[in-house]
C-alpha cells in the first residue's frame, strides 16, 4: 500500500511543480523596474553654468568634444537645450557606458543639482527647448481621451498601444513608458532622443503633450479584465492559453484518466 | 493488387517451428482500489465528494450575491473586482461539480474493465448482396434506367437552379465592382496637408529637422466615405536635413527637406509608421519591411518589394504644405492590374 | 459482457424509481428508446487521459456556444458611426463604430459581460489548442488508419472551420488591432492573380474598409461556421461510435476487441463531468486574466497601428510566414503584377502544410500497402518515419509561429529583429530536416532500448558474487504484461513488387505506380528495429545460461510463463531473480 501511495505522489508531483513554476514565473514577470525621482526645475544661475561646464568637461567632453561641438562618436550638443540634457542624463541614458544599438536607461549617475547644472551649461551654448514646468506635465490637467487619440496615431506604432514598448530595426527598441516620469515623457517628445522623431510644439502642442502624458499615466496599473499579461497583445495571450489553460486541462485529464489506487 | 503483402507472413511460424511472435498474455487481473476494500477510505472519499458539491452550491450563491453587490462601476478597479468575483463564483461552481463528479467516478464507481468484441466495418457478403439487389430493384422501380434524357435534363436543371441564388449574391456584394478606385486617392493639386487625427493644416515651418507629422488630406471630412479615403490617403511628412537626401522619386517633389511618403505599406497594406530619426528608416510593425526615406523610400529589408509612393508637395502663399498632385502610382499593396 | 442484475429486484421500488420507470415506459412506447439504450448503455470505451483531448475541444466549443449566445444579445454588428459615452475615460466622446461601442458597453456596463467576453475569447484559444493537441495524439498514435481515414478528414475540416470561426470572431469588435489584421487580409486577397482585386471588392463590398464587413463577418461567425462545425462534430462523433474507440496497446487489447469501461455509468459520467471541468477552467481564466482589451487599441481607423500587431496564436504561423519572405519575389509579367512575395507565404506555404496534413493517412496507407483495419494504437517510437514526419511538420509550424513573434523575441531577449528574421529564414529550411533526423534516431534508439529490456530484464543494482569469484548484476526479467507491450507491434517492412515484365516478357500495367509505391515504402520503412521474437529471447537466455538450465521444448516458448516463472538466470552479466518480479499492475499502462 505504501508503494502505491508513493507512486501516486510521483504522478502528481510534476503537475504541482509545473504550477508552482508557473506562479513563480508570473510573479517575477510582475516585478517592476525601479522608478526615477522627480525634481522641479529652477532658474539657472551663472554659478550653475560654471559648475555644469566642469561636470561636462569631466564626464561628457571625451565623446561630445571639449566645446560640445560633437565628434565622430557623438553628436553636437549646441542648441539641443536643457530638456535634452535633463532627459538623457536624468534617465541615466547619458553618460553612455558602452556602444550598442542605442543608449539605454540605467541608474542615474548624477544628483538632481548636478543634472540641473549640466543642463544649464548646455542651454547656455545655444537656444533649445527648456525643461517643462510641473504644470505643463501634470497628468491631472490632461484630457485622457484626446491623449489616447494622439498617442495611437503618433506613438503606438513604436511604443505599443498602451506604452508597453516595442521593437525597432537592428536591435533598437522603443522602451516601455509606464515608469517614465511625466517630465521625461515631455522632454522625450520635445527633443526626439536617438531614434525617436521630434515632436515640437507645432506638431504636438504643449496641451496635447499633456493629454498624452495623462493617457500614459492611466496605463500599466489596473486592467479591468484581471492580469494584463504584459499588455503585449495576442502573442502573450496565446502563450498563456497554452501554458495555463491547456496545461491545467491536460493536468486534470491526466488526473481523471489515472487509475485510483 | 500486384504488390505483395508482408503482413500475411507475420504470424507464420519460423522454419524451425518456433513461434515468430509472442502471445498476448490477456487482460490484467482486476485490482481492488483502497476504497473498494477499506471502508474508512470509502467514507473519506464520500466526504470529499460531498464537500466539492457543497462548494459548488456555495459558489453559485456567491455568484448571485456578487452580481447584486458588486456592479462593474466606473473605475477599472471596480470592474476588475466585479469580473473577478463573478468569474471565481462561476469557476468554483463549475469546477466543484466537475472535480467532485470525476473524483466520485474514479474512486467509488466500479472500475471493472469489460471486453467487447469488434466487428469489421465491412458488411458481410450476404448483406452486401441484399443491399445491391435493393438498389437495383429501386432503380428498376423508378423506371429511370430506360429514360436517359429525363435523367440528363433533371441533373442539368438541378445543377443550374443555384445560379438563381448565387448570381444576386455575387452581383450585389461587390457594390460597383469598380476596382480602378484602387489607383487613385483624394489628393489633388492644392490639397492641404493636415495633422492626423486633428485635421489642423500643417505649416512648413511646423516641421523642424527630425520632425515627423502623420498626415491626412485637410478636406478628408468632406469625402463621401472618409474611412475608405483615409485608408488610401494617409501620408507621413518628414523633415530631413536637405544634405541627407540621397534621392527622391521625382524632381522637386519635396519642400526644403520635407518629404511626404504614403503610409500604406506596399507589402500588404499595414500603416508603415515607425520612423527612426537617426537612420531615416521607416519600419512596418506588421512584417518589418524597412524603407529608406532619404533614398526614395527604397526597401532595405523585409517582405515588401516596391518603395512607398511619394506625394509631391510644396507650400501655398500662407506657408501651408499642399500637394502638387495625386500620387503618381497606386498606393498600398500590389494587385494584378496595378500597372494597367 | 456480464450482466449486473442483482437480487435487489425483489425489493419494492421507491417512488423515484417508479417515476423513472413510468417515464421510460412512456418514451419507449413512442420512440422505441429501448433499442438505443440497449445499443449504448453498456458500450465499452477504452480509457486514457489523451482520449480527453478531443473532449476538451468539444467542451470548449460548448463553452463558446453558451458565452457566444450571451454576447449576441448585447453586440451590435454595425459599422455605423456613433460617439461613445460611458465609464471608460480614454474613450469618452470618441467617434467609433456601433460594433466597437457595443463591445465597450457589454464589457463595462453589462454585469458579467466582461466575464462572458473573456470566457468566449479564452475558450476560442483553448478550442484551437485542444484541436491541435487532439490531432497530434491521433497522428502520432496512428489512429487515422483504416477505417478512420474519413474521420481524420472530418477532423481536418473542423480544424479549418475553427480557424475561420476564430478569425471572423476576432475581427468583430472593429478595433485597430483586428482592423489591421483585416487590412493584411485585404492585401493578401489583392495579391491573388487576375481575380484578386475583384475578390477584395467581393469581401469588403467595395473598397477597404467599407461599411459591410462587420455585418457580413457576424453572419459568418454566428451562423454559417458554427452550424457547419456543429454538423461536422455530430458526424465526427457518430463515426467514432460506429468505429468504436481505438485503444492503446497492452495485454488483452487486440484489433478484434475493445477493453474499457461501460458507457453507463463510468463513461457517461466522465463525459458529463468533463464539461464542467473544461468550462470551469476557462471560467477561471476569464475571471483572472485579461484578454483582447480592445479599449487599449481603440476603434478602427486606417491610419494608426501599434507595436505587437499580431493575430491570435492559431493565425500566427501565417504572420510569421509573411514576415520571413524576402520581397524580391514580386515581379511584373507584361503589365500585370505577380506578388509572389505575398502568394508564397500566405497561400503556398500553408497550402503545403495543410495538404500534407490532410492527405497523410492516404499517403501512409499507399506506402504501407496495408488494407486491414487497425484499432490498436501505435506507440510513436514503433513508427519512426511517421513520428519524425509529424515532428518535422510541427517544427516548421513552430518556427513560423516564432517568426510571427519576432518583434517580441527581439525586445525580450535584446536581439536584433533583422538577425532573428535571418535566423528563422534559415531555420525554416534546416529545422524540419534536423527535427526529422533526430526524432527518427530517438525512435530507433527507444526501440533498441525496448529490445534490450525484453532480452535482459530490468537492472536491479544488486551485485552477486559467485563461488567462482565472478561478480554479476542481478537482472529482473520482465513479466508477461510488460514484455507484451514491447513486442506486440509489427515492424513493417518495405514492400516488394512484382517484376516489370511477366514470364512472357510483356510489360505489365501499373508497374510504374508500383515502383513509386515501392520507393515510398522504402523511405517509410527502410530503417526499422524488429521486435524481439521468442526465439531471440531463448537465445539470449541460452547465451547467459550459466547454471546449465536447459530450456524446455520449443513449443513451450511464447507462453506468458516464459521468463518469469521458470526462474531462468542470466549469466555473464545477468542473473534473473524470479522472486523480484515487477507487479503486473505497476507496468504496462
TrEMBL record, chain B:
- InterPro entries registered for this protein in UniProt: QcrA_N, Rieske_2Fe-2S, Rieske_2Fe-2S_sf, Rieske_Fe-S_prot, Rieske_Fe-S_prot_C
Membrane-spanning intervals of the chain: 49-70, 82-105, 149-171
Keywords from the UniProt entry? 2Fe-2S, Cell membrane, Disulfide bond, Electron transport, Iron, Iron-sulfur, Membrane, Metal-binding, Oxidoreductase, Respiratory chain, Transmembrane, Transmembrane helix, Transport
- Fetch the Pfam families from UniProt: QcrA_N, Rieske
- Name the protein family: Belongs to the Rieske iron-sulfur protein family.
Instruction: Please explain the role this protein plays, according to its UniProt record.
Output: Iron-sulfur subunit of the cytochrome bc1 complex, an essential component of the respiratory electron transport chain required for ATP synthesis. The bc1 complex catalyzes the oxidation of menaquinol and the reduction of cytochrome c in the respiratory chain. The bc1 complex operates through a Q-cycle mechanism that couples electron transfer to generation of the proton gradient that drives ATP synthesis.
Q: What is this protein called?
A: Cytochrome bc1 complex Rieske iron-sulfur subunit
Automatic annotation (TrEMBL), chain C:
- E.C. code: 7.1.1.8
Pfam families given for it? Answer: Cytochrom_B_N_2
Compartment list: Cell membrane
InterPro entries, sorted: Cyt_b/b6_C, Cyt_b/b6_N, Cytb/b6-like_sf, Di-haem_cyt_TM
**Keywords assigned by UniProt?**
Cell membrane, Electron transport, Heme, Iron, Membrane, Metal-binding, Respiratory chain, Translocase, Transmembrane, Transmembrane helix, Transport
Query: Quick check: keyword Ribonucleoprotein in the entry?
Result: no
Tell me the Gene Ontology biological-process terms attached to this UniProt entry. respiratory electron transport chain
Q: Which GO-annotated molecular functions does the record name?
A: metal ion binding; oxidoreductase activity; quinol-cytochrome-c reductase activity
What organism is listed for this UniProt entry? Cellulomonas algicola
The record's Gene Ontology cellular component field reads: plasma membrane
User: Where does this protein have compositionally biased stretches of type Basic and acidic residues?
Assistant: 540-550
Membrane topology annotation: Multi-pass membrane protein
Key word Transmembrane present: yes
Instruction: Give residue ranges for domain Cytochrome b/b6 C-terminal region profile.
Output: 250-445
Q: What is this protein called?
A: Cytochrome bc1 complex cytochrome b subunit
Where, if anywhere, are coiled coils annotated? none
Top EC class per UniProt?
Answer: translocase
Which cofactor does this sequence's record say it needs? heme
PROSITE patterns given in the database record: CYTB_CTER, CYTB_NTER
Renumbered residue ranges of the record's region Disordered: 540-589
* TM regions (residue ranges): 56-76, 119-140, 152-172, 218-239, 271-291, 342-363, 384-402, 422-439
| PANTHER family for the chain | CYTOCHROME B
Catalyzes what?
a quinol + 2 Fe(III)-[cytochrome c](out) = a quinone + 2 Fe(II)-[cytochrome c](out) + 2 H(+)(out)
The Cytochrome b/b6 N-terminal region profile domain is annotated at: 23-249
